[in-house]
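agent> step 3/5: call structure_predict on target 'Isochorismatase family protein' (Paraburkholderia sejongensis).
agent> reason: downstream docking stage needs a structural representation; sequence fetched in step 2, passing through unchanged.
tool.input:
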Amino acid sequence: MALTTLDAKTALVVIDLQRGIVGLPTAPHPSNEIVERSAVLLDAFRRHGLPVVLVNVAAGAPGRTDQGAHTGEFPAEFVQLVPELKQQPSDHLVTKRTWGAFTNTDLAAWLHQQGVTQVVLVGIATSIGVESTARFASEHGFNVTLVTDAMTDLNADAHVNSITRIFPRLGETGTVQQVLDLLEKTRA
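tool.output (status=ok):
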């Protein structure tokens, strides 16, 4: 489904654009492009007085996986948001310890307190933090928009799978330019 509209109270949610994640090799898009595109959206949402949520991950969820068990917190430098996001006092910071930004955080309550009915998601990694957050946003009743040219993954196949098979079931997909055009059209 193509992007059709932005609700009157739409929030931008930026997933894991932090030093440790942005420094990893990504595909199909390099991290610096995702940071640049996300920064453009951040500027637009702030200019229109819409809520901005910056999400970082400080630890992995406990438990064993085929890739090993995670223990402990990530180093402080790994968790720091990249400076290109230009974090503002009005931005809501969510620090997560699982893949998704809703699990064991105040995100759902904060969005509801702000009157938000739609979330626009960007970030890294498409199939991990972005997809998990999108799933829970949908389950919490938010309209979900996924900005496919402002996200990338650690694995190109996983990225394509999320965008082509999963995201159309969770919300609408669009590009940075489509979101910007809708912001200008609906808030002029």
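agent> step 4/5: record observation. The beta strands are 10-15, 52-57, 92-96, 118-124, 143-152, 172-174.
agent> proceeding.
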